[in-house]
Design brief:
single chain, 379 residues, alpha/beta, seven-stranded parallel beta sheet, 7 strands
Length: 379
């Protein structure tokens, strides 16, 4: 079911893709969903449901969702997948950063009720009554959680003190804003006295929290975060990385508005940078793969993945989700059609699992290597 279309610009890759899909879909024995990852925004196929992804879109996909399957899912595997995917971009994590981010995510999942090594906690409906419904944490949650830990580490206080300090700052900002408004209006006596009292009350609560922290120093528990997160500088670099990931705008819990009745879903990711495209494709393909596993063994094709400029998303890493799909997803009804200019950047795992290789026209600089890699005669 896997196919590779090779040809330099202008040789007809997009035309061939359209032709293939027009012929494949009517021949399917059941409903088929095509997922086209369009990196240039030029694979416009009639009848496709197209959604554009960028920093400003209010929807996306959540890379921190937990697969509840006791064999294939869980907290540890999800964290490892996130770390591995991040390390396949141009900005790899250092050893200390990776360890720090691992602990941040582990603590974040635990705070949201997902406990490593306890499969019964990996489901949303775990039978525990909560004030708010249990949910998968998001990239924004990870950024906020790490930021909170960083603030606590910087001022040497526990989270309760930081919480009170943030409340004081917010109230103080509101107070001084109103004070300036009153002065401009012609008198400081117009400032709301109740707001002053709120600020003083919160300051006293903050002092109390600091006192509680100082009295608890002898337990040694206050050093746990420092030990887990290495140092303020390491944690700060992780917070900045999470902030950048969150700012991309594609890692959100709101689902994109694809038409459920459309056979073709086109992901227009032209506006994303190359690293952002790699992250988007990797996390989305992983989600589709695990959904296919949960669907079970199929007798025919149920989903077709179309990757434009596919060499951007490949590596020899066995954990790369594309290599995993190439080797393991056929029996679950998943097929891949990958388009690129040359076979030189594709892994051996992928090439050996591709049944059909269409060569529309390679640049002469690729001929020698392609002949060896594809085991075909130069002529």
């Amino acid at each position: 079911p896997h196919m590779l279309i090779m040809g330099k610009s202008g040789t007809g890759k997009t035309y061939t893709l359209r032709k293939l899909l027009r012929q494949i879909l009517p021949q399917a024995e059941g409903p088929v969903r095509v997922h086209i990852f369009d990196v240039h925004g030029d694979i416009d196929i009639q009848g496709a449901s197209s959604v554009k992804f960028s920093e400003s879109t209010p929807y996306g996909f959540n890379p921190l969702w937990i697969n509840p399957d006791p064999d294939f899912g869980g907290v540890r595997k999800r964290i490892q997948s996130v770390l591995s995917t991040l390390n396949r971009t141009s900005r790899q994590l250092g050893n200390k950063q990776e360890s720090c981010l691992r602990n941040i995510l582990m603590d974040l999942y635990s705070a949201n009720g997902f406990i490593d090594g306890q499969p019964q906690t990996w489901v949303l409906n775990d039978g525990i009554q909560r004030r708010y419904p249990k949910k998968n944490p998001t990239m924004e949650d990870a950024y906020r959680f790490a930021s909170f830990k960083l603030k606590a580490m910087y001022i040497g206080a526990n989270t309760a003190a930081v919480s009170k300090l943030e409340e004081v700052n917010k109230k103080s900002a509101a107070f001084y804003s109103k004070q300036r408004q009153a002065l401009r209006a012609g008198g400081a006596d117009k400032v709301d006295d109740s707001l002053k009292r709120d600020i003083e009350k919160l300051k006293n609560e903050c002092i109390e929290r600091y006192s509680e922290y100082l009295n608890a120093v002898s337990t040694g528990m206050e050093f746990d975060d420092l030990l887990k997160y290495d140092s303020r500088d390491v944690l700060k670099s992780v917070v900045e990385r999470l902030e950048n990931l969150n700012a991309i705008g594609i890692f959100k819990s709101s689902k994109p508005p694809f038409d459920e009745d459309a056979s073709i879903w086109r992901y227009d990711i032209k506006a994303l940078s190359i690293d952002e495209k790699k992250l988007f494709v990797a996390f989305r393909l992983e989600e589709l793969f695990y959904q296919a596993i949960e669907r079970g063994v199929q007798t025919g094709i149920r989903e077709i993945i179309v990757l434009d400029e596919a060499h951007n998303f490949f590596s020899d890493d066995e954990s790369n989700i594309i290599n995993t799909i190439a080797k393991e997803a056929r029996k679950f009804g998943m097929s891949m059609i990958c388009a690129s200019q040359s076979p030189r950047h594709f892994s051996d795992d992928f090439l050996s699992n591709v049944a059909t290789k269409i060569i529309l026209g390679l640049d002469q600089t690729f001929w020698d290597e392609s002949a060896r890699k594809l085991k075909i005669d130069m002529n």
